[in-house]
Amino acid sequence: MAISKDTALRLVLVTDLVNEAEATVSRLRNAGIAVRPTRPESLDELAQTLAQQQPVDLVLADYTSTQMPFEQVAKMVLGCGKDVPLLAVLDGITDDILENAQNLGAQAVALRERPQQFLKNVQTEWQDLDARRSQRRLEAQMRETQRRCDMLIDSSREPIAYIHEGMHIRANQAYLEMFGFETFEDIEGMSLLDLVAPGDVDGFRTLLKELTKGEPPPPRYELTAIDNEGNEFPAVMEFSAAEYQGEACQQIIFRHQAVEVDPELERELAQLRERDQATGLLNRQTFLKHLEDAVIDAGKNQTLCGFLLFEPDNYQRTLQGIGLDSVDNLLKAMADCLHELLAEQIADGSTKAARFADHSFAILARGDHTATNDLAERVRAAFAAKVFDVGVGSSTFTISIGGVQVGEKIASVSQVLERASLAMQSSASMGGNRIDIFDPGAVDRAEEERIQAWVERLRDALANDRFLLHYRPVIPLLGAPGGMYETLLHLESEGGDNVTNLGFLRIAEEHGLSGEIDRWVIQHAIKVAAGRAKGPKPVRLLVKLTQASLQDESLPRFIQESLSAHGVDGSCLILQIPESKVFINLSDAQRLCAEIGKFGCKMVLERFGAGIDSLQLLSHFKPSYIKLDPSFMDDLAKNVQNQQKVNDLTHKARELGILGIADGVQSTGTMTALFSSGIDYVEGDFLAQSGPDLNYEFES
Predict the structure, then answer these.
(1) Nearest-angstrom CA–CA distance, 357 and 424
(2) Measured between alpha carbons, how far is residue 264 from residues 169, 182, 260, 522 in Å?
């Protein structure tokens, strides 16, 4: 499974019978899945379980339950605002039942009388969930990194620009203000020469040519600059080599040769830049930064907050009543009403309020979906009851509110803004004085097209040899001779980069392509090993197998034919099978191990030790190696329980003549603990990064 850290499945079981719940847990544990089960006895208990900070991984709900009807359970799960897969548990199935379960929101069905189907769907949904969570974390980290870089540039009081081949590719606000530009779009792609006074153009052009040739820049360069309105001023420039969005460029600090800006004045200006002058609320740019912070936090830490967008109903009619000259007074009165209502929350930082557009306002507040609805109702009621004194008269009006719950399933600024805008329009179209909060539990089925595109891409990769192999050294602690590497499958992308197999192998398995991909890897691994067999540094390569290959009775013959075709012994190839797959395919694993052993190939039982009774499996299936589950390496130097577990597994395996591999080694402290455990091999990016070359220097 592609679960990287939390190997225990946090499972909610909805069933009328306790013994049914116990049987389900037993089945999963017997398949090597560690389970942390919860069985709520009412819908209220289910709601409390879903609302807990600790996330739920999966809900298995009895489709025929009378105490907690499936329809109500599905509605609660989908409406909780969290990414929680729901499986309907059935004794049998018909087309009508399947269609109804899916319409109610079930991602899949699990049949009690078909154990393999039951386990496969549970594992698939868990893997999908983990992949989605991983993707959200990575996207959030990427957005945060990009934002921090931009903030560092923007927050600098120094006028800074990035120049590539003489053209502007980035500039901060201080730089724009110095030259009289409003936005970067006004200067993007403009030649730096356009900001140099005519008398200094020739000399500066020569300097740019020298920089383009790679010559070092001067520490300081003085010239006369010219702003957007043609005003000349003395300036000094400082250059340094830099990189922006992957391109080599020059960072330029462009200073006005004048007296230094007063620091206190600069702070006051910074505060003014955050506020809307007409209302005193945050301006759009500042508010969007806070919104992006909230989105990043939701993606990384699963926090919840509400975003509200609202504007006056019948705004044009209101303008006719108060006059255009009183527009600013109206907006200020609305802002005062909002600030009066939310004064405490704004003061403690839990709520942000802003003028978002011409006559629309926005609120960002911490809280779950219920809190967001309550806040929206308070705002709606406050405006409906308020008499606004504007100009020489007074006026009353209502507002239309659209909202979005910013949570794990909608951790994207663009999605939040789009959904809120649509919801606000919906409120207005229904007559106004209404609230429409988007429910993040609504299921988006557009995922199907993305998966189909991946299937076509994988088929193309098989047909046109677009897969790549990378190799990570498996390092012996006891000085065993010969090199050993684990093969890591990558897919060549359209841009020339490559994609790891974390996501696409799951799709390949679901669409019957995993067996073909396994054969591609095996064949290329044998070819690589054969190329090294006659040299001074022969290698053994570890290749992962999927369940499809484990069940493929023709695979041993394919391996033997590939070995013969390349004239190499089978000892160069070591096949890896996860413990959980061997548990549910024991006969197939025994057969494969025996048949490939006839021509020298060996096997690794990977992700070992995470099951309920892993050592018992070794009495039925004896590989040449066990590879410990990476979760044991988490803070191993301080985790006494994990240390004891590693020692027990390693020594028991050695008694049976089985060598041990520690996967996912993270630190020198972990290495120290492993030396005393008796482990034979270690691997992990901390020790040696994977790459396309077999160039690790193993000790002889």
Answers:
(1) 13
(2) 31, 24, 12, 68
Question: What pLDDT digit, counting tens, does each position of 235-268 carry?
Answer: 888 887 777 766 778 888 888 775 344 555 545 6
Q: 3-state DSSP call for residue 158? A: coil
Cβ partners under 8 Å of residue 594, min gap 6: none
Nearest Cα to Cα of residue 256 among 172, 177, 171: 177
Low-confidence ranges of the chain (pLDDT < 70): 1-7, 141-153, 245-246, 258-273, 321-325, 391-393, 411, 439-450, 479-480, 493-503, 610-613, 699-700
- CB count in 10 Å sphere of residue 26: 12
pLDDT at 6: 46
Please check whether the domain covering 448-683 is classified as CATH 3.20.20.450.
yes
State which fold the 158-260 domain adopts.
Beta-Lactamase (3.30.450)
Q: What is the pTM of this model?
A: 0.44
Q: What is the pLDDT of residue 147?
A: 65
d(CA 171, CA 589): 61
> Nearest-CA neighbor of 478 among 317, 613, 306, 679?
679
| Cα 435–chain centre separation | 31
CB 596 within 8 A of CB 559: yes
Does the structural domain 9-137 have CATH classification 3.40.50.2300? yes
Number of Cβ atoms within 10 Å of the Cβ of 262: 10
The whole-angstrom distance between residue 319's C-alpha and the CA centroid of its chain comes to 46
**Amino acid found at 685:** D
What local confidence, expressed as pLDDT, does residue 70 receive? 92
CA distances to 180, 189, 232, 512, 556 from 195, in Å: 11, 13, 9, 61, 71
Query: What's domain 278-438's superfamily in CATH?
Result: Reverse transcriptase/Diguanylate cyclase domain (3.30.70.270)
Q: Look-up: residue for tokens 């679960």?
A: 3
The answer to whether the beta carbons of residues 365 and 306 sit under 8 Å apart is yes
User: Nearest Cα to 661, choosing from 644, 646, 640?
Assistant: 646
* pLDDT (tens digit per residue) in 447-473: 566 678 888 888 998 998 889 999 999
Domain ranges across the chain: 9-137, 158-260, 278-438, 448-683
Strands 388-390 and 351-355: unpaired
Partnered with residue 399 across adjacent β-strands are: 312
Q: What is the pLDDT of residue 445?
A: 35
As given in the structure block, the two tokens for residue 187 are 């200067």
Q: Which helix (H) or strand (E) holds 57?
A: none
Q: Output the pLDDT for position 576.
A: 95
Rounded to the nearest 5°, which phi and psi values hold at 513?
Answer: -105, -5
> Hey, what amino acid is at 395?
S
Contacts for 635-643: CB closer than 8 Å, 24+ residues apart: 636/669, 636/670, 636/673, 636/674, 637/667, 637/669, 637/670, 637/672, 637/673, 638/669, 643/673, 643/677
For residue 417, the surrounding DSSP H or E stretch is helix 413-429
Is 665 strand, coil or helix?
coil
DSSP one-letter string for 435-471? EEEE-TTS--TTHHHHHHHHHHHHHHHHHHT-EEEEE
CA 307 from chain center: how many Å?
A: 22
In contact, 130 and 123? CB cutoff 8 Å: no
> What b/e readout covers 632-671, taking b as 16+ CB neighbours within 10 angstroms?
bbeebbebeebbebbbebbeebeeeebbbbbbbbbeeebb
